[in-house]
């Protein structure tokens, strides 16, 4: 058998089910990997050895109860014994949650969030909470309370954000899969920075659960993986309604994992490399090369690839800043701890407090109008293809600007000029790591992701297309120098 840390989540679950390795052995191997690598890549903010050991024991008991009965084994949870950490913006009962902020020091989650319940039901082993920037705001993970999350492809560079610790944990092969969340690109950005698969599902696909609210409905949960089919299986685990949901979508034809085996023919792929929200932002030559590689691969697969328009003028995106600022202002920070926040958080919260009700209502309406404009602009194509990021991941400390948080914000927008559009319009998008090249002469090889997006509810199409690209331009053989 291959090294445990090289197995996908599905392969690891299958090995546990066949009793080639026990849940306790998997956990021991994972902990050893975390001990060796976490300090270098900044993956975790909290480790949970007691909880993980108890869940590994429960997995072993489930295996023992199934015995050798084929039907009983087939009925076991799909990710039994697989280590899967939770991003530290999400509650796990009895575990501290600081959300990247000194202002939340001492808070211990009283309950599990809905996605944590789903992962427990799937048999996963929660080995810890992953690193995130303060309340998930920036697209880099450099909180004051923990070391920065670094891409294992170049430790001088960021793992992205806000699911940066999750991406670092998966890319360095500490775990095969990790929970993430995405309110403006926070799964897809670190996926691209770390050479992973990152799917932002449709609005309404994954419920916020019994303790969540939808608010502006920009954010959704998901996972980071090294493998398209692992992402699909996780979507099967997480998708599905909870009582009281504001949004719901019909489920898949059979399963999202099955969708990876289907092959739609003659799709119309529209390519856009011009930034949506910062039109003058420079786009790195290797980011363009990634799109060219994807375009050729899609053409070879029998699809029709052509240029597509930018979906709306950049100034029509500006109301999103009002929505994002109000979201920052609603983060539950104790008033007496406000001074502990980093400058970006304070700037965004102060800005959000200044957004009046009418302005906020108009900003929500503007987002809904953008969804209609994008649908009209892209009516002649089935899938949109863009670079995932405009540039390679920045150096640690390069983008964070405590002296000028507004400049920090706009630098983030220039780095991620396509990402937030998919959150605003509510449609699914997936980043896949097709292209690998040095960003600078003589520099290390880095991943350059491409993003595929489609209409609301189109996850099956995206997973099918991403799986076909994974077969046509494989990346599983690639190993970072760290990990």
Word description of this protein:
This protein is an alpha/beta fold and 483 residues long. The protein is 37% helix and 12% strand. The protein has 16 helices and eleven strands. The chain has helices at 9-17, 23-41, 49-66, 70-74, 114-121, 164-171, 188-194, 228-238, 256-259, 285-300, 319-329, 343-353, 357-377, 405-415, 419-425, 459-472; strands at residues 44-47, 86-87, 128-130, 177-182, 197-200, 220-225, 268-271, 304-307, 383-387, 429-438, 445-453. The strands form two sheets. The chain has an eight-stranded mixed β-sheet, with helices on both faces. The chain has a three-stranded mixed β-sheet with strand order 1-3-2. β10 (429-438) and β11 form a beta hairpin. α2 (23-41) runs antiparallel to α3 (49-66) and α11 crosses α13. It is globular, with a radius of gyration of 21 Å. The model has no long low-confidence stretch (mean pLDDT 97).
Q: How are the SSEs ordered, and which strands pair?
A:
Layout: H1 9-17, H2 23-41, E1 44-47, H3 49-66, H4 70-74, E2 86-87, H5 114-121, E3 128-130, H6 164-171, E4 177-182, H7 188-194, E5 197-200, E6 220-225, H8 228-238, H9 256-259, E7 268-271, H10 285-300, E8 304-307, H11 319-329, H12 343-353, H13 357-377, E9 383-387, H14 405-415, H15 419-425, E10 429-438, E11 445-453, H16 459-472
Parallel strand pairs: 2-3, 7-8, 7-9
Antiparallel strand pairs: 1-3, 4-6, 5-6, 5-10, 9-11, 10-11
Helix pairs in contact: 2-3, 6-7, 8-16, 11-12, 11-13, 12-14
